[in-house]
Amino acid sequence: MGSAAASAVAGFYEVIAPAAPVRDERAAVVEAEAPDEALAFARAVQKLVALFDIERFVAAAAEVALEPGPPARCRISMRGESFDPARHPYGVEVKAVTRHGLVFDRAARRVRLVLDI
Amino acid sequence: MPPAVTRQDIEVVDANQLRIPKERFPGMRVDGRVFVKTDDLEALVHDRALGQVVDVAHLPGILGASMAMPDIHYGYGFPIGGVAATDREEGVISPGGVGYDINCGVRLLSTGLMYEDVKDRVRPLIDRLFELVPAGVGQTGRRESKADLTEAVTRGARWLVDRGVIPAADLARMESRGQLDAADPQVLSELFEPETARAFGLLGEGELCVMIHTGSRGFGHQICDDFLGVMEDAVSKYRIELPDRQLACAPTVSEEAQRYLKAMSCGANFAWVNRSTITSKVRQAMSEVFRDGEAGRRVKLVWDVSHNMAKEEVHEFDGQQRKVVVHRKGATRAFGPGTADLPDDLSAVGQPVLIPGDMGRCSYVLVGTAEAMRTTFGSTCHGAGRLRSRTAATREFNANEILRELGARGIYVRGQSKRVIAEEAPLAYKDVSMVVDVMADVGVSRKVAKMLPVGVMKG
Q1: What is the ipTM of this complex?
Q2: What is the pLDDT of residues B7-38, one digit of tens each?
Q3: Which residue of A has its CA nearest to B79?
Q4: How many CA atoms lie within 13 A of B88 on its CB side?
Q5: Across residues B335-358, what is the average pLDDT?
Q6: Cα dihedral angle (B227, B231, B234, B240), rounded to 10 degrees?
Q7: Residue B326: beta bridge partners?
Q8: What number of other Cβ atoms are within 10 A of residue B387's Cβ?
Q9: Is B19 exposed, middle or buried (0-12, 13-18, 19+ CB in 10 A)?
Q10: How confident is residue B139, by pLDDT bands cut at 50, 70 and 90?
Q11: Are strands B445-453 and B363-368 parallel, antiparallel or unpaired?
Q12: Chain B contacts of A117, Cβ < 8 Å?
């Protein structure tokens, strides 16, 4: 499930900076806790929105660690750099990670997040 | 995702209403009730927004029906155009029933000027507003201190009165007097109820008016986002079962819900300060463009409506006065004559309702009715409703072509970017006249005046 979640994180950054060659220059970690794994993951990705808004961080690679709990915990560890408009094409602004249609299916290894852009 | 609602799940009530019986989908506590032209349901049946009406009907304490206005379209959890009233003591409050843009709303300003007399000034007026009003993400303007921001979000528009930015008279023309605990010049083209229009403060056909449409921006967005998390924990704590996590909620009497109401009120106050500040810029621009200080002072606030809010109100239900929380997400309050919270000079008339259309067609002024109080918890539509998402609109429509076509019709448009122009293409929206006609036919809100755009500023 970690790899499915990591793919979702990659998809999140693809929305912000599509096809961007992101360098491995520094680390960043976000963590979140929630009543279940799906919400813990959604909250963690929501923190990526703030990380971009404040530090302009974009990830080259990400690993997602999950503890089912309760409370469930999610930790997203990343390597990346600061967004550089000269090298990174800007996609669209992500305003929020909604909970609408949230899917976190362990059996199918499928994750779906609906982003408010 | 919301359930698929098929033709078999729908009962046509009359030419303007359909019902989704609660027995059709397990978990529905009340029927779904959608106000829409029912002569052609094909497109509507394929719209997943109907499934969202079904989902909202699951909310604990929901009264009457899970409703949607004719500008219904797909949202997060609640459909846009959704109205849900929950019992104040037994029901819940859901931030998803308000939306991210808390107190997104519209206000109408009368200028006291006739368009034919001043039409050569519309373009410079738009240009000056474009300079005075920051539009879009990342724009900068005057920075306020943290203390001032606190004042603004707790006192709302009153804060601006104390600072001399707006006159006190403006407060009487806002819901809740502008405090809870994209200026578009329009021309009044057609009056359906001249007496009512005059009672609202409008001059008459041909008057130049200005419509402002904005909300609480990133501030309200953050509030909604933060409280979705609080409500998610509450759903677990109070063991509430929901078909969509975006409907996360808490009992209205709970500590979590009361905290949300206070935070939502801060967002609402921020939006009133926002619209009021833009109003002051309109007055400034009018004075400068017409080189006459009186031109600015003549600008009067006709009314200010919210179309994303949860309000604690008292309504008659099942023959009794009942305290309820009315969630309006992309829906407008439309109080009838004699209702509390209306200023004295409008009490006999009813509440003005402002319905913005797209930038190519028209907008409307309506009035709330007693029928609205009986049928929809005092609610009506809020606008045209999208036919295309913003993304789809940017793919389908060309900004330069839109500007050319509107310019040829005498409509001057300034946009922050070509993308914004394409997103707001007229054909990306339903025809607002059709939306307004449904509510008029049902008797929930009557048409008072129609307005035609002559200038548009989009941020």
Answers
A1: 0.86
A2: 999 999 999 999 999 999 999 999 999 999 99
A3: A100
A4: 12
A5: 94
A6: 170
A7: B85, B311
A8: 16
A9: middle
A10: low
A11: antiparallel
A12: 391
pLDDT band at B182 (very low <50, low <70, confident <90, very high): very low
Residue A20: both structure tokens together = 């961007």
Residue B289: name the closest of B413, B457, B133, B121 by CA: B121
The domain of A69 spans 2-116
Q: Where do the H-state alpha helices sit in B238-311? A: 255-289, 293-297
Which residues of A fall within a CB distance of 8 Å from B246? 98-100
Report the side by side order of strands in the sheet with B80-87.
B11-14, B17-20, B31-35, B62-73, B80-87, B320-329, B308-317
Report the gap between the CA of B395 and the closest CA in chain A (Å). Answer: 14
CA–CA distances in Å: residue B439 to residues B161, B284, B314, B420:
35, 36, 22, 29
Closest Cα in chain B, distance from residue A14 (Å): 16
The residues of B annotated with a catalytic role in the active site are 382
* H helix intervals, chain A: 2-16, 37-55
Question: What's the CATH number where A61 sits?
Answer: 3.55.10.10
pLDDT in tens, A53-90: 889 999 999 999 999 999 999 999 999 999 998 899 88
Domain count, chain A: 1
- Nearest by CB to B225, from A36, A96, A100: name it: A96
A116 forms beta bridges with A96
How buried is residue A77: exposed, middle or buried, by Cβ count under 10 Å (0-12/13-18/19+)? Answer: middle
| Mean pLDDT calculated for residue range B187-211 | 88
Tell me the C-alpha distance between B18 and B44, whole Å: 11
Q: Tell me the shortest Cα–Cα distance from A80 to chain B, in angstroms.
A: 24
Q: What confidence tier does B147 reach under pLDDT thresholds 50, 70, 90?
A: confident
A30 touches chain B (CB under 8 A): no
**Neighbour count for residue B129 (Cβ, 10 Å):** 26
The Cα–Cα gap between B162 and B199 comes to: 27
Buried b (16+ CB within 10 A) or exposed e, B216-226: bbebbbbbbbe
